[in-house]
Amino acid sequence: MSKQDPNPRTKKECKNTKAMWFSFSSSFPQSKPLSPLKQSTTARSNTSDDQFPPTHVKSITSTSNPFVKHCVKLRNSSSYRHSHGSVLLVGTTPLREIYNFQELMQNKPTTIDCLFLHENAAVPEEFVESGIHIVRVNSVVMKKLSGLQSPESIDTISLVRIPSTFHSICGDHPQDISKWFPSAFRILVLDGIQDPGNLGTLLRSAVAFGWDGVFLLPGCCDPFNEKALRASRGASFQLPMVSGTWSDLQSLVDGFQMKILAGDPGSKDELKKVSYLSYELARSLKCTKLCLVLGSEGSGLSEDAREVSELVSISMSGDFESLNVSVAGGIFLFMLQTKNKEI
């Protein structure tokens, strides 16, 4: 709990209830340095690949085409994606979500560089007059680009820039935290979330419930991983994201005087008290700036986070040990959403 808060929450203890626990803290331990995603979104390779996308190309029929190889490597390699600042996005639905989001934004954070369209498919209505470069491909090339064994339902694949709202930072240098999130009232913090499906689902829920951004601590998978993109359905391009260390997160917490809510699927410390998420607790936090930290699927919170945590549980009446992190996160994101974002 932050030092600025004179009214600590009341903890309700509940015995003999299996639960998913969550916790509050006011400070971070001095943890050893951990590496976030190392490449900046603005980093662009100076190799000949900078010619991509080739605007003169209107159709591709061979999987040996250099542009196809470039795009496949973007899909398969995180370091390659971030060094070129580009992502391969499979399917029409996430692309439509991004495009519709862009239409609502005054400053567009994402650029759609190219649209791969199956040779027999019609141009999606939104993009008929968009001016986006379209390349027609056959089924063999579409399968290669998508990486799917059965891509029959895939008519559209797009080459999209990593959004300007994504920041990969390092705690060794001073940072202007005001540039990370336009608003920092509700921030989701992911601590070592390795499963791309869970990470993508959490991003999608964060957008759905109006959260302001996501902070990725070391150990998280790339939010632009193909499976994470599929699960997020375009949320990765709609939500400000920062990849950094605990030290960087501490700067955010101190700068905005935020409370920290951290989560783990089970406490190993019997000496710690447990309080429970409730509507009363959620209402008490309605006007409070806070971060919600979710621990990894296997080991839960990192030891650094566990050292400074009070435990708060989601009470469960069913006979089950814990909830999946994306399910538990969805409950908290819903319960703690608020329309009062006065910073």
Automatic annotation (TrEMBL):
Residues 187-334 form the tRNA/rRNA methyltransferase SpoU type domain. CDD domains: SpoU-like_rRNA-MTase. Residues 39-50 have a biased composition (Polar residues). Gene3D superfamilies: 3.30.1330.30, 3.40.1280.10. Keywords: Methyltransferase, Transferase. Residues 26-38 have a biased composition (Low complexity). This is tRNA/rRNA methyltransferase (SpoU) family protein. The lineage of its organism: Eukaryota, Viridiplantae, Streptophyta, Embryophyta, Tracheophyta.
